[in-house]
Amino acid sequence: MEPHPIPQNVTSFQFKLVGDMTLKQFIYLASGCVTAYVIFVFFARDYPIVTWPLIIIFTLLGIAFAFLPFGSRPLDHWVRAFLKAVYSPTKRVWQKNKKTYKEEPLFNSRLIMYFSGNIPAPQMQAPVPQQYQRPTPAPPSLSSSELPSKEELQKTVDLARQAQVLQVKIIQNERMLNQIKAEAQKPTAIPIDYSQQVNKILNDLSLLVTQASTIKTQLHSVTQQPTPIPTLAAQPVEKEKVKVVFTAKSKQPQVALTTFPNVVNGIVKDKQNNYLEGTVVVIYDKEGLPVRALKTNKLGQFTGSTPLPNGTYTLELEKDGFVFDVLQIELTGTVLSPLMATAK
Fold first, then answer.
1. pLDDT value at position 119?
2. Angle at 16 between CA 15 and CA 22, to 5 degrees
3. Which of 4, 55, 262, 305 has a CA 20 to 30 Å removed from the CA of 71?
């Protein structure tokens, strides 16, 4: 590879004072020599040991700043670069409402957040800390053969500890998802695309749910009974608010929004049959955990980008000034027709 030529300053003219010496070089040289001469006149007679090294140093500095380049650049350029690197900030932080966030905002409060069980999402129930109470002693009527062994107890404790760690991570992801949702609803001059951040958080949530399901299965095999994990507690849905949607064949022709199976899609309208833009659609699995967050376009349409596993899912729609029923669907590996959601 041929070396790239160093850019040269060919657009500006530098005044040459004597030969190739520019005015700036003359000022540097004169400053060093004048400073050395002043030190010689006022301090050479009384302090010769200290004065002569200073005279030599200032003279050499004047010559260096005037005629000594490093990497085809004068010495004053490197001094400016050094001072800028030292005094300019090299780490960017996020500031909002005159508050600086230098690290993960939930990191320092993770212990308090776990014990309080405070989840900001209005549609999610806060995990009950009492579910992590210590096991009560077995009644005296039980025989020693019915009591769990030491290895089973240790394995149960390890699995519970892993469940606690997963709970903290799930709460953190839900907090970040709600923060992104709040930021997306604020009007801004320049639209901001949060799709990558939302997809990353949803992928993390899916991975955490998978790990939590594995731990739940292991706990079931150890205790031989279904042991509920707080992060996987099923979301109790009020019967009067649930509207089961069946993908029945419609007589009227509908425009297909997707050709992939298990991809949730639909259209949102108001009472006057007008399309609602900007409606947030959050999809929850049967464990009550969010797996997708979608937003309608100008035609009131929403569609997922990736398919979901087979199972039962709940859809909650949110938009200021409108109230929607909670939708429940069953995915069986087929292409879904668009869901029709109308505000009350």
1. 46
2. 90
3. 55
